[in-house]
Design a protein that fits this description.
Blueprint: E1 13-16, E2 22-29, E3 36-39, H1 51-58, E4 62-66, H2 82-95, E5 101-106, H3 108-119, E6 124-130, H4 145-151, H5 158-165, H6 170-183, H7 195-208, H8 213-216, E7 226-231, H9 239-248, E8 252-257, H10 264-267, H11 269-281
Parallel strand pairs: 3-4, 3-5, 5-6, 6-7, 7-8
Antiparallel strand pairs: 1-2, 2-4
Organism: Hyphomicrobium facile
Pfam family, one: Abhydrolase_1
InterPro entries: AB_hydrolase (IPR050471), AB_hydrolase_1 (IPR000073), AB_hydrolase_fold (IPR029058)
């Protein structure tokens, strides 16, 4: 008898979009009318999702993770704007003939998720914005020097991931090391990301963060029920902007997870998954 499909055993599939891009994705979980599509963070690939988080989400619904245009095992050239990334993601969703989805966007993926909800309001049923920020938000125009240096190392290692994703406390760093162990469990691994993708994505991050209070008004058009979450010490997408989004999105609820940085959803994977599943089921 075949074993249960998990985040570390699910096969990688590909599908060609109308733009000619061949998208790599993984799809598994408990069958549900509305799948949950996850949008990945800066330079992340299929393998950067925490398997424990994915398995906890998949226990209650079907989930889909994918590499957007030019990322790792997906073909094409990574665009340098969030707007084009969102349109490319919609091409992938259209290729799968999905008419209604829930969306979880993490970090840069949360930028894209906001645009998806605004461009196709009838496509998105519910929205989760994790460790992300609104376009034009104050204090978002590029990352502070230490974070920039860490994320732009040509060969970042485990220490880099621990530094930028987890709070500088013994407890958070210990949880980071646990995540690294789970991160390495999959044997059939995705292709690595490239420096070209990193640079294009950072251009998109910087443009998104150009200060513009008028852009914040866009959030009023996100009418879907929205769960906005972060760690209490996010240095990439400052936690204060999580509260700002929660106040500007009409139907939003906010949760801040303690002793955690940008990677709070890996550190608190069990609690976050339970919160997401409850939010999507409510």
């Amino acid at each position: 008898m075949l074993g249960k499909v998990t985040a570390t055993t699910v096969a990688t599939q590909t599908i060609e979009g109308a733009n000619g891009v061949c998208y790599a994705y993984r799809r598994f979980g408990n069958a549900s009318d509305v799948p949950l599509v996850l949008f990945q963070h800066f330079t992340g690939t299929l393998d950067f999702w925490d398997p424990a988080l994915l398995d906890a989400l998949a226990a209650e619904r079907e989930i889909i993770i994918f590499n957007n245009t030019g990322v790792a095992s997906t073909s094409g050239t990574t665009p340098s704007t969030v707007q084009q990334m969102a349109r490319d993601a919609l091409t992938f969703i259209d290729a799968l003939t999905l008419n209604k989805i829930d969306v979880l966007g993490f970090s840069l993926g949360g930028f894209i998720a906001q645009d998806i909800a605004l461009l196709r309001p009838h496509l998105v049923r519910r929205l989760i914005l994790a460790g992300t920020a609104p376009q034009g938000g104050p204090g978002l125009h590029g990352w502070r020097q230490d974070i920039y240096d860490a994320t732009h190392a040509d060969n970042p290692g485990a220490g880099t991931l621990l530094y930028i994703m987890f709070k500088q406390t013994p407890t958070s760093q210990a949880k980071g090391n646990e995540y690294l162990g789970r991160f390495m469990e999959r044997k059939d691994r995705d292709a690595p990301g490239t420096l070209a993708t990193r640079d294009a994505q950072y251009d998109a991050v910087v443009e998104w963060g150009i200060p513009d209070h008028n852009k914040l008004a866009r959030l009023a058009a996100i009418t879907q029920p929205t769960f906005v979450a972060n760690g209490d010490a996010d240095y990439m997408c400052p936690t204060r902007l999580t509260h700002l989004m929660g106040g500007l999105i009409p139907n939003a609820q906010v949760k801040i997870y303690p002793d955690a940085g940008h990677g709070f959803l890996w550190q608190h994977h069990g609690e976050f998954a339970a919160d997401v599943n409850a939010f999507l089921a409510s």
